[in-house]
Amino acid sequence: MDANLYSIGNYIVEVFNNPSKSIGSKLQENLLQECLSLIQNSFGNNNLGIDDVKAHIIDSSTSIFIRDQTRNIVGLATTSLKKIKHINIIYLQGTAISQEYKGKGLYNFLTSIRIEEGIKKIRSSHNRNNTILIGSRTQSPLVYRSMNRKLGLFPNPDGYIDRYIKEIAPGFVRSLDKRCN
């Protein structure tokens, strides 16, 4: 297991960069089962399968897990780094928080860690372009409002769209479509 570990309050935070390489195959099996249970609990959806979970957890650029005092995963978040044209994108891919822990600030905490880890990874690659955009999509009005407060969104209510967004939007959408198929 090759993870960065942090202790914050009563939580242990595990950050796996390149999880497909940094999490051993035996640990992957156990971790995916634990994540599947968490995601089903978080969304109240028992129709999700292990392949869906693997696509989000193992095939991402970064996976972050929050464990409680009993070492159970109570929150997770994943990120994919993309480069479209000359723009670096930190795509906030997925988040799940156990029902018992919702409303305790874990979503904002996970979002901050994902952004910070993505920026560190981009900077460490000696990338000459300093432009970094953060992308996400959601069906949740709560997540939408949180992202708008934390990051700002495009298009703005007045219809303004940044030129970088216009430039990379088609490639970004295609990269999401490939990932979903």
General description of the model:
The protein has 181 residues and is α+β, with helices and mostly antiparallel strands. Helices cover 43% and strands 25% of the residues. The chain has helices at residues 19-22, 25-43, 50-57, 106-124, 141-150, 163-180, and strands at 4-8, 11-17, 62-67, 73-84, 87-97, 132-136. It has a 6-stranded mixed beta sheet. A hairpin with a 2-residue loop joins β1 (4-8) and β2 (11-17). α2 (25-43) crosses α3. The radius of gyration is 16 Å and the shape is globular. The mean pLDDT is 81.
Short description:
This protein is an alpha+beta fold. The protein contains six helices and six strands; from the N terminus they run E-E-H-H-H-E-E-E-H-E-H-H. Helix 2 (25-43) packs across helix 3 (50-57).
